[in-house]
Design goal:
With 371 residues, the chain is α/β, with parallel strands linked by helices. The chain has helices at residues 14-24, 53-58, 93-106, 214-227, 273-288, 300-315, 320-330, 333-340, 346-355, 358-370; strands at 3-10, 32-35, 46-51, 63-67, 69-73, 78-82, 87-92, 110-112, 116-122, 125-130, 134-142, 154-164, 173-178, 187-194, 199-208, 232-244, 256-257. Strand 5 and strand 6 form a beta hairpin. The termini are far apart. The chain binds flavin-adenine dinucleotide (FAD). Flavin-adenine dinucleotide is lined by residues 10-16, 35-38, 45-49, 115-116, 143-145, 239, 241, 243, 259-260, 271-273, 276.
């Protein structure tokens, strides 16, 4: 026999678990269920972003590393930023999600370890068919990862956390993008988080339409380590992922969509952490006021600017590295952090736009306007 709930949350990642947590703290008399096949402790990932003091404090128990500086590098430039108001920090996803999961378990929120196969809307109820059971709910929030289409723009990556034989020279600074890497398969950069002088996370990231085999990224990482005169002793963990850089159009979806599936990932950067938390905060406020719709967290202006940027990248590969270098050069550390956190004001946008090559941007803007 199927069970009935007021709210069913499909997927217990950052969006799903945070929504469940906020609902337990709200006034709404909601009977909630979270359907998630994997326990939080098994979700190994590094979630990084810029954080202000308040956010660092709030997430302190799951923060794995904090850095004052970050660098963007190509053959001719090393641009190093630091900010008065923001630091770059890495959250241990398994720890962060486990804390929320334990909070929910302590409050008797039901977490069903199952995989959803189908969600259908029937009159005012939604039916969720899982592998082992069926759930009925008045409202469903779906946070399963969005579908990644084969020939679409994506950010794909593979990284390893390693113990080194030799020490890292500069472990105060994160390498956000080191473009001194093979550029033949798309825009490619190495990302490195030095946790201390003997432990580093190194990732090879490509922005293109086609995913590479794991061995390819690994070869790129090893090449980069050799160029830095770093030799690794042991691989502690690995991480890989694919983030769609295509707009998630949810305007006609019958089922509410949240998190990355609900358009909370920044299209030009792949960063999602703060957008998701903001989306869930606003949604739970809506639910408290009896409005079950998911609010937009990104303005149309921001979405369109990111779409234009991505199209310039894909259609002008020879300009790609230079675009990031010019953007980084045009901004101070504070401005760069605000730009990445969707907090850029008019002045910051003007600075970025002024440094961009005008013809390809104008061409792609017109194409998007006509679409
Ligand atoms: C490896 C990786 C690293 C990332 N690093 C960063 C970063 O550093 N900074 C940043 O801002 N963003 C990062 N991102 C973007 C990332 O997508 C978000 O930060 C965040 O994890 C998305 O949260 P979410 O809740 O939308 O989705 P997810 O966290 O992906 O949660 C979706 C959940 O749905 C569950 N699920 C899947 N299928 C089913 C099913 N059939 N039935 C039920 N449940 C299902 C999954 O198990 C998962 O727990 C990263 C993404 C990946 C993949």
């Amino acid at each position: 026999m199927s069970k009935n709930y007021d709210i069913a949350i499909v997927g217990g990642g950052n969006a799903g678990l945070n929504l469940a947590k906020r609902l337990t703290q709200s006034n709404a008399p909601n009977k909630i269920i979270v359907i998630e096949p994997i326990a939080a402790i098994n979700k190994q990932a590094n979630w990084c972003s810029w954080h202000n003091e308040e956010s660092l404090k709030k997430n302190s128990s799951s923060i794995k590393g904090i850095w004052d500086k970050w660098r963007i590098i190509d053959q001719n430039n090393v641009i190093e930023h630091s900010s008065l108001h923001y630091k770059y920090a890495c959250i241990d996803a398994a720890k962060y999600l486990s804390e929320i999961e334990n909070f929910l378990i302590a409050r008797d929120v039901e977490i069903l370890r199952d995989k959803v196969q189908l969600i259908s809307a029937k009159d005012n109820k939604k039916e969720i068919i899982c592998e082992s059971t069926t759930i009925n709910a008045t409202h469903v929030y779906d946070s399963r990862p969005p579908e990644i289409k084969e020939n679409s723009l994506k950010q794909h990556f593979y990284g390893i956390e390693i113990e080194l034989e030799s020490g890292v020279k500069n472990h105060e600074s994160v390498t956000l993008m080191d473009f001194r890497a093979d550029q033949r398969s798309g825009l490619h950069f190495i990302y490195a988080l030095p946790f201390n002088d003997s432990r580093i996370f190194v990732e090879s990231t490509v922005i293109s339409e086609n995913i590479k085999p794991k061995s390819w990224y690994k070869k790129m990482i090893i090449q980069w380590l050799e160029n830095q005169n770093l030799t690794y002793k042991t691989i502690i963990s690995e991480e890989n992922g694919v983030i769609s850089q295509v707009l998630q159009d949810n305007r006609h979806a019958k089922i509410h969509q949240i998190g990355s599936r609900g358009g909370a990932t920044r299209l030009a950067s792949g960063y999602a952490f703060h957008n998701i938390n903001n989306q869930i905060k606003l949604l739970s406020e809506n639910i408290d006021a009896n409005n079950y719709n998911v609010p937009d967290v990104m303005s149309n202006f921001l979405i369109n600017m990111d779409l234009i940027f991505n199209r310039v990248l894909i259609n002008n590969p020879s300009l790609s590295v230079d675009l990031f270098i010019k953007m980084a050069k045009s901004l101070s550390g504070d401005q760069f952090s605000e730009f990445m956190l969707n907090k850029a004001n008019f002045k910051i946008w003007c600075k970025v736009i002024m440094r961009m090559p005008k013809t390809p941007f104008l061409k792609e803007s017109i194409k998007i306007f006509l679409d």
